[in-house]
Structure formats: structure tokens, C-alpha cells
Amino acid sequence: MNAGYSSGWCSESFGIELNAREITCRAKGDKECLFVMAPIEKIEDIVKEQLAKLTTE
């Protein structure tokens, strides 16, 4: 939730269009919650990078 709130705040404050995504969530049975925030054009790459890190840990 905070990542979504922060992305909206940054977008309005700095004129940077950001998107937030949930990668893992304890409510879904994951060990922890992980959210990422990135410019819209880079969000998919960031999500893939984070998922790759999770599979190597």
C-alpha cells in the first residue's frame, strides 16, 4: 500500500510517472511482502530482476 501511495506522491510532486507492483505477499503465503516502485517504462524489467533474485536465494 505504501508503495502505491508513494508512487502517486512522487508522480505529483516531481512529475515522474511511477508505478508500484507487489512482488511477494505474506497474505499469499510468501515469507515476506516485497513491493517495487519504478518508472512505468522500467517496471517490468525491475519486476523480472526481483523475481530472478528471489529464485536464486
Structure overview:
The chain has 57 residues and is α+β, with helices and mostly antiparallel strands. The protein has one domain. Helix content is 47%, strand content 23%. It has helices spanning 2-14, 43-56, and strands at residues 18-24, 34-39. The longest helix has 14 residues, at 43-56.
Most strands sheet: 2 strands, antiparallel
Shape annotation: flat
Biggest sheet, spatial arrangement of strands? 1-2
Count up the helices: 2
Tell me the series of helices and strands, N- to C-terminal: HEEH
Specify the structural class: alpha+beta
Please estimate the helix content. 40-55%
Radius of gyration: 12 Å
Q: Mean pLDDT score, rounded? A: 85
Count of discrete domains: 1
N- and C-termini, Cα separation: 25 Å
Beta content: 15-25%
Strands, count = 2
Return residue spans where pLDDT drops below 50 for at least 5 consecutive residues: none
List key phrases describing it.
57 residues; single chain; flat; alpha+beta
Topology:
Layout (H helix, E strand, L loop, with lengths): L1 H13 L3 E7 L9 E6 L3 H14 L1
Antiparallel strand pairs: 1-2
Task: Summarize it.
By secondary structure, the protein is of the alpha+beta class. Helices cover 47% and strands 23% of the residues. The longest helix has 14 residues, at 43-56.
